[in-house]
Each structure stands twice: as structure tokens, then as C-alpha cells.
Amino acid sequence: MCSWGYLQLFNQGRFIVNTSKKHNKVVVKIGTGHRTAKDITKRLGEVGVQVCGWAFEMMKHDIFVSSLCHEPREIRLVSFTTLDFGFLERVSLEEVVSEVTKAGFSLCSPEDAPQFCLAHHDTMSPGTDIFLMPPIPVLGYGSRAFASSFSDSIRMIRAVEADSDAPLSYGQRFFVRDRSL
User: Fold this and answer.
1) Binned average pLDDT, 10 residues per bin, the chain of 181 residues
2) Which of 44, 76, 112, 123 satisfies CB 3.0 to 4.6 Å to 181 for a cystine?
3) pTM greater than 0.85
């Protein structure tokens, strides 16, 4: 399993962030009192967001439970694509994380994805947004991260591959935390 705190930084001559366009920034409240996977899953269901199998398994993991914020506060998530960081083809998760941290952003906490879906379930963009976060192991399936998906009126939170060499597609959208809030 990859330890994000010890990633080697790469400089491949690409521009770091395309600042010529406005990036989608959203404020999310965390520490909303949900303490278990059942609590969060129930609340997501009430607002019409399905929780897929591996995502539910991730929410039961000690890594997720220990990441839950106990004090209410707001965080700012910023949405980018791999293109914003100069990647013109498929790229490994490790390379994207390296560029994101060099640009001054931090990884999401595991709590950020379900809280985003709770707060923005009615305004989710079509497609899939991956939350760059420390990976959570799912027994027998490797490391996983959360992703929110919206298509044909189906809103869901699911798990995606998060090993360091996991590929991100051309133009893949993802969220990171803005350190300024």
C-alpha cells in the first residue's frame, strides 16, 4: 500500500495548474454528528444518494471512522481535471498526487466524499469525481478511494482503485482540499 506522506516528487516540465480558468470550489461542512457507516449511509439514502458495496465497506473501516471530525467546521474542496495539471494522457494516481501537493493543495479526508454528497446531492455534476485521499484497504480488493457519480438521475458514492499506480483517465475530474480555509 502506498503511503502518501512519502511520495517522491517528480518535475517533468509540465505547468503545475492551469490558472487561466476558474476552478470549481465548494464549501462542505464536516463534523456533522455521523459516527458510523450506518449513520452516514442512512442519511445519504434519505437524500437520494446510493452507497455502493465497497464504499460501505470503506465507511466501516477504522481508517474512515477515525477520520470523522468531531467538531463542526467547514472545508473547501477544489475540483480539477488531469488536464489542469498538464497531463495529456492516462496518468498514475501517484503522479497526480505529487503534482497536487506541489501546487499547495492537500488530500481529502475520507469523510469529505460522503459529506460532499450530503451537502451537494442536488447539484452534483454529471460524470464521476474522484476524491484524492489516503487509500483505504478493502479486504481482497486492494486500496480504494471514494468517488461520487451522477448519471441519468442516479446519484451514488462508490469506491475506485487507489493503488499508487492506478490509472486516471484523460480529463478525469477529482477533488482536493484547499488549504486556505
Assistant:
1) 24 37 73 81 92 89 87 89 88 90 91 89 84 86 84 85 85 87 54
2) 76
3) no
